[in-house]
Amino acid sequence: MAEAEEQETESLEESTDESEEEESEEEPKLKYERLSNGVTEILQKDAASCMTVHDKFLALGTHYGKVYLLDVQGNITQKFDVSPVKINQISLDESGEHMGVCSEDGKVQVFGLYSGEEFHETFDCPIKIIAVHPHFVKSSCKQFVTGGKKLLLFERSWMSRWKSSVLHEGEGNIRSVKWRGHLIAWANNMGVKIFDITSKQRITNVPRDDISLRPDMYPCSLCWKDSVTLIIGWGTSVKICSVKERHASEMRDLPSRYVEIVSQFETEFYISGLAPLCDQLVVLSYVKEVSEKTEREYCARPRLDIIQPLSETCEEISSDALTVRGFQENECRDYHLEYSEGESLFYIVSPRDIVVAKERDQDDHIDWLLEKKKYEEALMAAEISQKNIKRHKILDIGLAYINHLVEKGDYDIAARKCQKILGKNTALWECEVYKFKEIGQLKAISPYLPRGDPILKPLIYEMILHEFLESDYEGFATLIREWPGDLYNNSVIVQAVRDHLKKDSQNRTLLKTLAELYTYDKNYGNALEIYLTLRHKDVFQLIHKHNLFSSIKDKIVLLMDFDSEIKKVVEELEDRPELQHVYLHKLFKRDHHKGQRYHEKQISLYAEYDRPNLLPFLRDSTHCPLEKALEICQQRNFVEETVYLLSRMGNSRSALKMIMEELHDVDKAIEFAKEQDDGELWEDLILYSIDKPPFITGLLNNIGTHVDPILLIHRIKEGMEIPNLRDSLVKILQDYNLQILLREGCKKILVADSLSLLKKMHRTQMKGVLVDEENICESCLSPILPSDAAKPFSVVVFHCRHMFHKECLPVPSMSSPAQFCGICSAKHRGPGSAILEMKK
Q: For residue 804, which of 825, 790, 788 has the smallest C-alpha distance?
């Protein structure tokens, strides 16, 4: 039955442990480990009854009366057989050179660990406590106290004899004592007292709160936080007492010191031990719980809590349930909490186990973060404390973080973290790239690859470029723009792009990217051709940067497609006016108006590089400034262009004079006169030509259809020899005869057309005109047809479609018997006398 109950209790405890672990999300403040080595061997045969801690070693007392000195790892360094029964308490001075021991059989020993001085005494009652003076090593401080039924103070006199004095008695067994400086604090059945060893006065009495608890089962726990602050834990109550100096005016018969309780609060469980931790408290609690199945009370695992004391309450900072051996059988009095002030080590002592608690360091903090998969916080903590961590490496944490992100599917974040974590380690970079390749996430890591210091193998970059080329042209183009051309084998990538262009030859993204690759490879000709084909804005930058003006001479037509970039093209070609002229000329041929702002500039360019096209340009351009053009042509003595400009500006006589005086070309002068069709111009031409026989011959041959030849013939001087005069006169007569024939032919055609149109008009006017209720009389504006159809009526309709009641028209006179439409006659719109008359 007992075994069954024990198994049930264990299973309940295990389930409680699991639930607490599941619920715990806060990082523990302490870490725990069992004190092993020699301690394990001791506790297999014996049970721990008490322990005290020094900075250099530990002193462990057992139920079989043994005292062991241990190092901090639990190894036995010395053993003392003090008594055959339980060791109740061990006390050490601050130097660690003197030890006091008391046992259940009344024995008391105080001796030097490294000297021969010794005190032995056996009392007739169990001695529960012992405390040696903290400075016992000094000859003036050879004092210690023991406690059983009364509290005795032992002092060494000047003759090396020990004398004792009773400090207190009559309130039951002394259960606990703590000596700090000149103050001794002890607890008996009634409460806690503090004694000032200097003034030999008891300065306070702090009564016990819960007198229902047995003091032997729930002993008082005492600890000094400092030389004037005492912490008392008894049952579930905690009191923090401060020893203060009394003002001289208040002393009278009172002690020079008094105690003020600065904080008092209750805890959830029974207190087995106390220890200070900075401004906080470490509390070892004995826990009893009730089984839900059997409703019986059982001993649960003890708890070690860190609490923040307040004036009337406390705040729990952390709470840990401790799995100590045999906790199911232990009572509150079986647990002790000892601590080492120098290293913040806390020893949880139970009969079958000793557990060491210590503050967690940065390595422990990182362990917890990694366990909770808080890799980013772990990495940050390691970076901040990299000089203090011993068990962790920043790189290992970083790699674990990257793997964790990849497992979660956060590929972009994992890739971004590679920059910081991998740094300049090319081997790790290449390893991570291959990992990303295995999971098909090369695109994720591509933006973060190192591009300068360090540089990875070209194969790595080529592998990523091929990945983008297969699935994402835009991403591929972005990488080519962003990555320096020396990261990869340019010819390999060029060939891959050309292979893809065979499938999609018009893909602008690929073409533009290929042009950039050609530029990296200094193959500017191919790059320029692609840019021109694509009409890309970077073409001008490429031309200017690499001085490719000679390369664009045969590709200038492609620049015509840069409609929105005309200004930029002209500016880029400013240093190469011959190419500038070719471009503007081609642009003008394509559209006379696109480059109109540059027509003035083109006059000089044509005059310098392309005179044959200057005159056509002047004729076709409507935006060319004529004064500027005339100035340039006159400076360069361009006669034909000057003639054209003079005539276009209205100065035809000067133009004609220049033709005759500069060109001496009668045919061109006659042609010019014909174009102008101005009588005065012909007169000037005749006057200029009258004394020049060749000019007269030309005029006789061409003037017949524009000017009366008689005007010219009458002005010819008698006796002047004119070449081919007879032929010229015959031509004049033939031209005249031809004109007569043309006039007669035109007359016949005109008469025939007039007759035909007259007949057509007559037929049209003889047709009937529709008259209905919608028509109105243009004179009285009433309906043309009467509402009563039986009544007689008379309507006059003119051929102009205006209608009148006959009675509304004026009566024709004898002198003018014909009637006309008053409306059309008044507006002089032609005859309207023809009428249609309708009667009934």
A: 825
Residue 17 is predicted with a pLDDT of 44
Q: Residue 46 and residue 32: Cα distance in Å, rounded?
A: 23
Q: What is the pLDDT of residue 7?
A: 41
Report DSSP letters for 510-577, one per residue: HHHHHHHHHHHTT-HHHHHHHHHHHT-THHHHHHHHHT-TTTTGGGGGGGGG-GGGHHHHHHHTTT-H
pLDDT digit string, tens, across residues 368-388: 888 888 888 888 888 888 888
Average pLDDT over residues 619-637: 80
Pairing of strands 803-805, 257-266: unpaired
Question: One-letter amino acid identity for 662?
Answer: E
Nearest to 464 by CA among 478, 452, 454, 453: 478
Structure tokens at 705: 């259809």
The pLDDT value recorded for residue 438 is: 86
Q: How many CB atoms lie within 10 A of CB 449?
A: 21
pLDDT tens for residues 333-365?
999 999 987 788 999 999 999 999 998 888 888
What is the 3-state composition of the chain as percent helix, strand, coil, each rounded to the nearest 5? 45, 25, 35
- Dihedral of the alpha carbons of 562, 567, 571, 577, in degrees to the nearest 10: 80
Q: Say if residue 692's pLDDT is above 70.
A: no
pLDDT level of residue 263 (50, 70, 90 thresholds): very high
pLDDT, tens digit (0-9, with 9 covering 90-100), for 454-475: 888 888 888 888 888 888 888 8
pLDDT on residue 383: 85
Tokens 């200029």 locate to 688
CA-closest candidate to residue 308, choices 365, 360, 240: 240
* CB distance 580 to 573 below 8 Å: yes
pTM: 0.57
Q: How far is CA 660 from CA 18, 314, 583, 655, in A?
A: 122, 123, 37, 9
Burial code (b: 16+ CB inside 10 Å, e: under 16) for 651-684 equals ebbebbbbbbeeeeebeebbebbeebeeeebbeb
Task: Give me 730's structure tokens.
Answer: 């015959």
Q: Which two tokens stand for residue 335?
A: 């647990």
CA dist., res. 20 & res. 24, Å (int): 6
Which is more confident, 702 or 647? 647
Q: What is the CA radius of gyration of the chain?
A: 63
The token pair that represents 804 in the structure block: 């009148």
Amino acid at 194: I
Whether the predicted pLDDT of 550 surpasses 80:
no
The residue type at 176: S
Count, residues in the chain: 840
> What's the CA gap between 243 and 179, in Å, rounded?
14
Q: What single-letter DSSP state applies at residue 313?
A: -
CA distance 516 to 36: 72
- Token pair of 271 as six digits: 């207190």
Round to whole Å and give the CA distance between 614 and 600.
12
Q: Is the Cβ–Cβ distance between 682 and 705 less than 8 Å?
A: no
C-alpha angle with apex 307: 301 to 309, nearest 5 degrees?
140
Query: Chain-wide mean pLDDT for the chain?
Result: 81
Distance from C-alpha of 487 to C-alpha of 451, rounded to nearest angstrom: 7
Give the lowest-confidence range in 182-186, 531-535, 651-655.
Answer: 531-535
CB 480 within 8 A of CB 517: yes
Taking residue 781's Cβ as centre, other Cβ atoms within 10 Å add up to 8
3 state SS of 81: strand
Higher pLDDT, 226 or 680: 226
Do 141 and 117 form a contact (C-beta atoms < 8 A)? no
DSSP string computed for 413-464: HHHHHHHHHHTT-HHHHHHHHHHHHHTT-HHHHGGGS-SSSS---HHHHHHH
